[in-house]
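On clarity, I found the account of how folds are encoded harder to follow than it need be. What matters is that the chain and its backbone geometry are given together, residue for residue. The format is easy to grasp once an entry is in front of the reader. For illustration, here is how one protein appears when written out as sequence plus structure tokens.
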Amino acid sequence: MKKELPVNPFILPTISFSDYEQKFKALADQKRLQILFELCQRGNTCVCDLTEIVDMPQSKLSYHLKILLDVNLITKETKGTWSYYELNPTEIGALLSEQLCCIFRPRDQNSTCC
């Protein structure tokens, strides 16, 4: 049984470390990082273009996209028979936020955290 650690309630009132665990697992792959980078550079991108950009067959690309979708790091929009993907700025922002960084800073009187 996983135990949630107590956290300063002023930082993040409801932290789910398991959510962060899943997101960081999704990020712990070079190909998925490359996909995120390309989506960051290009914006809304068709899966047909992504296969060429990341040099990966569509079956393998779909596997990686599904992992990123499952943790909400990207969004998908279907237009006709094609799927278009882009970064989810809210989720990416949360992973890069000062709030998350504050979880890992020791609390002391000199802390400027949140």
Notes: The first strand starts at residue 45 and ends at 46.
